[in-house]
Amino acid sequence: MADYDFDVLVIGAGPGGYVAAIRAAQLGLKTACAESRETLGGTCLNVGCIPSKALLHASELFDEAAHGTMAKWGIKASNVEIDLGTMHDSRREAVKGLTGGIEFLFKKNKIEWLKGIASFESAGTVKVGERTVRAKNIVIATGSSVTPLPGVAVDQERIVDSTGALELAQVPQHLVVIGGGVIGLELGSVWRRLGAKVTVVEYLDQILPGMDAEVRKESNKIFKKQGFELRLSTKVTGVTRNGDTVALTVEPSAGGQAETIEADVVLVSIGRKPNTDGLALDKAGLAVNARGQVETDHEFRTSVPGIWAIGDVIPGPMLAHKAEDEGIAVAENISGLTGIVNHAVIPNVVYTMPEIAGVGLTEEEAREHGEIKVGKFPMLANSRAKTNREPDGFVKVIADARTDRVLGVWIISSLAGTMIAQAAQAMEFGATSEDIAYTCHAHPTHSEALKEAAMAVTGKPIHI
Ligand SMILES: Cc1cc2nc3c(=O)[nH]c(=O)nc-3n(C[C@H](O)[C@H](O)[C@H](O)COP(=O)(O)OP(=O)(O)OC[C@H]3O[C@@H](n4cnc5c(N)ncnc54)[C@H](O)[C@@H]3O)c2cc1C
Question: Is the entire prediction scored with pTM above 0.85?
Answer without folding.
Answer: yes
